[in-house]
Structure prediction request, 376 residues.
Amino acid sequence: MFPHERSLVKRMEGKPFALIGINSDSDKEVVKNKNEKEQITWRSFWCGEKGTSGPIPTKWNVSSWPTLYFIDHKGVIRQKNLRDEKKMDEFLDKLVEEAEKDAKGGGS
Amino acid sequence: MNRIWRGAALGLFFASTGIILAADDPPKKDDPPAKKDDKAQTPTEKFAAAKKANDEANKNFNKVLSEIQKKGERPSLENKELNEAFQARNKTTQEVVKAAEAVAKEDPTSDTGLDAMIMVINNGGPSPAILKLIAEHHVTNPKIVPILDRLAYGMLNKDMEDFLTKVMEKNTNKDAQGKAAFALASLMLRTRQADAEKLFEKIMTDYKDVKTFNSTLGARAEGSLFEIRNLSIGKVVPDIEGEDVDGKKFKLSDYRGKVVMLDFWGHW
Prediction:
């Protein structure tokens, strides 16, 4: 997961894209240390000390990790739990293209 | 290896038996029925012996685990002693499951048979053959209530659906009905959303207060209904407000205008 995410973030630099994590580890210090070690530069909500049973995963009914949501620039959920890295890349490229088109005034 | 600990932490029961399931052989008919004059053990005796060995292996595993925790270390299967205790436990669990399957098949109508079936489900996962036997002989028995909690995970198949539907219809115990409905709805959540939604709604009206783990069916059904109604493909994503690891507040909607890949993750 991490190597692909790192290269994804790099590849998308300067594009209308953000990788946002919902970190469900219960120990904040452990997360900070490991983020540095693993070069995790993208931002994450932290779910609190309850970790996987914290308020965000509970509200979102998350029962397996990782759980993924793909959201377009208008805030619409377009896909969930795409795990194949190639398909993930293709799908995100398509969404980013839509976002860029709209930003140029091409959208309706 | 880490997955085992995560599974335990999440309360996903079958996750902790993943290794067992993977290593489980297809059921073999290796034991012809014991003859009276034979010195070989009967299936019931074998089952009792296997249970005893498994209890001891469990005890030993827990002892090793708590010693590691007492030392303030993080339990890992890289620890040799823990690994050995873990393997020994898995081996005896597999033997119990096998012995229990034999009892269940030999004596499906009795209480001992039902105990054996419950043992199989709890330790080996929801075997379709065993579900069929319970559906046929014990569907009204309140003893099956605790196993229903464990059936809410995994893939839905026909045997499972038949079994849970039958429990909902035939068992007069309210907990049994509610838990069967919840398991069925949960298994349908990602593939048959409209059916799942109806069942979760029924749980909210009829079985809201039934206790499950450290929660209630109502609270858990509410989460699933939120998922169906707000987190389906095509819906506008609900906002998230929270703090990052450095304690800085931010919102998901801060990123509107950008494509967002939202990833529920952990280092574990």
The domain at 2-102 of chain A is CATH 3.40.30.10 (Glutaredoxin).
